[in-house]
Amino acid sequence: MTDPKESALRVRPGRAATEPPQELLARVAKRRRSLSHQQYVDGILKGQRTILAQAITLIESSRAADRELAERILEDCLPHSGNSIRVGITGVPGAGKSSLIEVLGTSLIRDHGQKVAVLAIDPSSQLSGGSILGDKTRMKSLATSDLAFVRPSPSRGSLGGVAQHTREAMLLCEAAGYQNIIVETVGVGQSETAVYDMVDFFLLIMLTGAGDELQGMKRGVMELAEVVVINKADGANRAAAERARIEAQTALHYFPVSLSGWTPRALTCSAQTGMGISELWNCVLEHTVVTKANGWFGQARRNQTRKWMHEIIQQGLMQQFESHPAIRKRLEAIEQDVLEGRTTSFRAARTLLDIYAGSKH
């Protein structure tokens, strides 16, 4: 798939190749904003990937006008969303997440004729705020398929490395007809918990040597996993991968029984040979059947939606608080008092909250 930004930045015939980058970017932004609300909605519902990508860019924008338009688009697309399987994939860097996703996505397209959207959450550059890992370049085969949509998004410091508007992007992808949504995390910090709260099925990828890794692996991460996959189970590493699978399966037995009615399991697979990929997806389908039958699937999604609402409220309140004139006037001085030990963090926070509350009366 061609990157919409890249294609938009190509120099058209007759236009000087030396056009200043700032002017070129401004022209691209203007062309994006020239689409009407209805054109965005119609394009998304028709599955037009370029318009879908532009709509997600609107969602990620911090401009008030873009956010207002994005919210209108989301409201109109919402009735057409929800008809997908949402899978979260996490694991330590180097576990082969992107390779596995590419093989899995390609299999779904080739063998099942289904559309696949991958929302890959990259760590953000501290300098530019842009994506560092560039998952689209690491999923070349999948990204070029007409039935795939691969979107690397910088985390920009949001909780756990999960892009702030990943949930909204998922809804738009569903409205565009993608039956399978895969969210890849950076595999560090609290990203695992954040992604778990927005997907139906949570997959943890590990490598051989799991005996040592299990000692250092956060208990909470394994408790969240529906399936633990030992990747790179090929060649001389296959026997070691099977031993790691047994160790992981044993560890899973010590965790409390899941309320979803699903019994977590450990598998081995190889993104290089394709071994175990179909079995992995069969687990996803089996989990979906089980949880839909017992009502957990719908209940979990409703709970996720409620939590999403509360997160939006918290973000909105924080933005109002930080942008309030009375707070902006006092914040720097009170922060300095904290830094120099003249007051405690608790007292400083309480002072600012009192100022904010008092200004509302």
Question: Can you walk me through this structure?
Answer:
This protein has 361 residues and is of the alpha/beta class. The chain folds into 3 domains: 4-78, no CATH class; 81-294, P-loop containing nucleotide triphosphate hydrolases (Rossmann fold, 3-Layer(aba) Sandwich), CATH 3.40.50.300; 304-359, Orthogonal Bundle (Helix Hairpins). The chain is built from 17 helices and 7 strands. The protein has helices at residues 4-8, 21-33, 37-45, 49-60, 64-77, 97-112, 135-138, 140-143, 166-175, 191-196, 210-216, 219-224, 238-252, 277-293, 296-323, 325-339, 345-359; strands at residues 85-91, 116-122, 148-154, 180-184, 201-206, 227-230, 265-268. Strands 3-2-4-1-5-6-7 form a 7-stranded parallel β-sheet, sandwiched between helices. β6 (227-230), α13 (238-252) and β7 (265-268) form a beta-alpha-beta unit. α3 (37-45) crosses α5 (64-77) and α4 runs antiparallel to α9 (166-175).
What would a concise description of this structure say?
This protein is an alpha/beta fold and about 350 residues long.
Keywords:
disordered N terminus; 3 domains; alpha/beta; 361 residues; Helix Hairpins; Rossmann fold; 7-stranded parallel beta sheet; 7 strands; globular
Distance between the termini: 54 Å
Spans where pLDDT lies below 50 across 5 or more residues: 1-18, 125-135
- What is the CATH H-level superfamily of the largest domain? P-loop containing nucleotide triphosphate hydrolases
- Counting DSSP H or I runs of 4 or more residues, the number of helices is 17
